[in-house]
Amino acid sequence: MKDKENKRKKVKDTTIDMLFLLAACCFGTFSTVSIMLPNGLTSGGLTGIVRIIQNYVNLNFSVIYYMASIAILIILTIFLGWKEARKTIILSIMYPTVMVVFEKLNLSLLEGKDVILAAVFCGVFSGISSGIVIWRGYCFSGTDGIAKIIRKKLLPQIPQGKIMVTIDAAVIIVSAFIFGRNIALYALITQLIISKTIDTVIFGFESKIVQVEIITKDMAEQIIDFVMDDMHRGVTTEKVIGEYTKDRYTKIRVYCSPRESIELKKKLAETDPTAFVSSIRVENVWANGKGFKDIHEDK
């Protein structure tokens, strides 16, 4: 009976995830197909890379995007294994498929060509899309995947977010030589709006660093391994006692980004749903540059 309930709950959760991911794909593809492309704009990330490729190849944007997504998925599987790749496989297929549909619908948000409005609303819709995906614990196979490979294999000491920003910046700089400096500057505006919108979707107007505290009885080692091996974050632990039951527990404290806290939350839901978890905003963390601000800054 319990197995049936668990199975039913899993099916329900998966269905809800799929609906949210479908909504995210609609927001994202509308941003690209109905706002960015008709106004001759570009952006960072995989979208910007595909935009550059399309300038030299006579294929639909969705076709190039689909091929690029699958290529990154394969590379991700080779370098990081199936465990990491499976997080992106759904969106690697769903996102380009929805994009094909939007290309056929031929929708447009703006009445005429307006690059300023297009740059702003392209960022808003793309940010909503990415925010929903991160909130549900999934990720795109674009520069997210590339950043994961670079961090895992080459630069483990650098946060994934910084690597992604560097990749986006490189794509925008290349775009300046191909589409012109003005288009690249509009892309920069779009990218900044995307970043802010993602944070707003996930955590409202909270800070970009959160402190997560987990109180668990039996799963401390598994949680610690996940934080250190998969998230590459430091962990502080202490032994605590529940005064009502007098049972002994382990309290785990982690400082991480909102994106990483969502990953941790999803892991806890799978491994220890009875854990007590609290998350609070943190204005600043100084830790000698170990994934946070350098302690010598802001003196």
Describe this structure in words.
α1 packs across α4 and α9 runs antiparallel to α10. The longest helix is centred in the N-terminal third of the chain and has 35 residues. The protein folds into two domains: 202 residues, no CATH class; 74 residues, 2-Layer Sandwich (Alpha-Beta Plaits), CATH 3.30.70.120. It contains ten helices and four strands; from the N terminus they run ααααααααβαββαβ.
- The portion of residues assigned to helices is 55-70%
| Strand segment count | 4
Assembly context of the chains: single chain
Estimate the strand proportion.
5-15%
Q: SSE order in H/E notation?
A: HHHHHHHHEHEEHE
Count of separate DSSP helical elements = 10
Membrane topology: Multi-pass membrane protein
InterPro entries: DUF2179, N-reg_PII/ATP_PRibTrfase_C, UPF0750_membrane, YitT
Main location: membrane
Protein name: YitT family protein
Explain briefly what this protein structure is:
With 299 residues, this protein is of the alpha+beta class.
Walk me through the topology.
Layout lengths: L1 H35 L8 H10 L6 H20 L1 H24 L9 H21 L7 H11 L6 H20 L1 H23 L5 E8 L3 H11 L5 E7 L4 E10 L1 H14 L4 E7 L17
Antiparallel strand pairs: 1-3, 1-4, 2-3
Helix pairs in contact: 1-4, 1-5, 2-3, 2-7, 3-4, 3-6, 5-8, 6-7, 7-8, 9-10
